[in-house]
UniProtKB/TrEMBL annotation, chain B:
Protein name per UniProt: PadR family transcriptional regulator PadR
SUPFAM superfamilies: Winged helix' DNA-binding domain (SSF46785)
InterPro entries: Metal_resp_DNA-bind_regulator, Tscrpt_reg_PadR_N, WH-like_DNA-bd_sf, WH_DNA-bd_sf
Source lineage: Bacteria, Bacillati, Bacillota, Clostridia, Eubacteriales
Species annotation: Ruminococcus flavefaciens
Signal peptide: none
Segments forming domain Transcription regulator PadR N-terminal: 14-83
One Pfam match: PadR
Length: 220, 110
């Protein structure tokens, strides 16, 4: 018996026993983990060591206070084929189909939703990212503008110094003031503001991705 | 091992293993196998019972691209384990007094 067969039979028997679906999922994830931890090549061995899934199910049910009378349920035919779906209704009272199918469906649903709402969220994401990017560009250009003005004034001052010393000194002074300002502005701008905006963009993208992952799960 | 092990003793041993180290189902079974003949399917109801009794709690940890369920002992589990240990000591003494001939204090190294 391989892992899939063991887990399927276990699930069927637990469902027949009327175990709440949370408990069923808990048990199945435990047994799935056992198979994974035992190693891929050892499925048959592991299954054999644990005994029949019917007995395992009876033990779990007994521990949950459900006493199973008579022989445990043998593997039913309803698992494969389209007719399984029809049988399931009256027999299980509309019980949830195996977990794998449900989660697969919810992921697909999430993807479909993501695609359908694409015209809405894509422009919003673009706008927010571009705005943040524009902010960085504005900051950098401001710094460059100040820097250029400072250099211009300093050069102009030196040139003017020879003909109109007073004007030249004034230009030089203004140039030095601007240089100081640039240095004062540059430092915090480069060391804090720009990385912060970059982080903001990154976090926003992460948040958008997370939103879709979560959305998918909630629909399960 | 010719002696059967009861549910209480199994609970106590699992608590003791988890108290040493947070660990996962498969590893707990491997530890227990050093002393008793037990399979993964014997362990599951035990873990479930201890969890429901709030003696163990679980958390998931990523391992090779999947989640592995780790068990951690709670304060209540610690208290309970102490009681079990106390009980075991007196139980063992009584059994020893008969089986190994009265009053003989053997210091078993385990």
């Amino acid at each position: 018996m391989n892992k899939l067969e063991f887990l399927t039979r276990l699930r069927n028997n637990l469902e027949r026993g009327g175990l709440p679906s949370d408990d069923i999922n808990d048990a199945l994830s435990y047994y799935e983990e056992v198979f994974l931890d035992a190693g891929f090549g050892k499925e048959e061995e592991t299954a054999a060591a644990m005994g029949s899934p019917e007995d395992v199910a009876v033990n779990i049910l007994r521990e949950s206070g459900i006493h199973v009378g008579g022989a445990p349920v043998m593997p039913p035919q309803r698992m494969d084929g389209p007719q399984g779906q029809q049988q399931q209704g009256p027999m299980m009272g509309g019980y949830v189909p195996p977990k794998k199918k449900a989660s697969g469906g919810s992921i697909a649903l999430g993807i479909v939703l993501g695609i359908l709402t694409f015209p809405i969220w894509f422009p919003i994401v673009c706008v927010v990212v571009s705005l943040l990017f524009a902010l960085i560009v504005v900051l950098i250009s401001l710094v460059i503008a100040f820097f250029a003005a400072a250099i211009g004034l300093l050069i102009g001052g030196i040139v003017a110094l020879t003909e109109f010393p007073a004007v030249g000194i004034m230009f030089l002074g203004a140039g030095l003031i601007l240089t100081g300002l640039v240095i004062l502005i540059c430092k915090p701008a480069f060391s804090a503001v720009i990385p912060a905006i970059g982080r903001g963009i990154k976090r926003f993208c992460g948040w958008v991705v997370g939103l879709f992952k979560k959305g998918g799960k909630e629909n399960a | 091992m010719g002696f059967s092990i009861n549910a209480g003793l199994l609970d106590a041993m699992v608590l003791s293993i988890v108290q040493n180290n947070d660990t996962y189902g498969y590893e707990i079974t491997q530890y227990l196998r050093k002393a008793v003949d037990i399979s993964e399917s014997t362990l599951y109801p035990v873990l479930r019972r201890l969890q429901k009794g709030e003696m163990l709690e679980t958390y998931d940890k990523e391992f090779m691209g999947r989640n592995r369920r780790y068990y951690r002992i709670t304060p209540k589990g610690n208290d309970s384990l102490e009681e079990y240990r106390e009980e075991w000591r007196s139980h063992k003494k009584k059994i020893d007094s008969i089986l190994l001939n009265e009053g003989a204090e053997y210091n078993e190294q385990t």
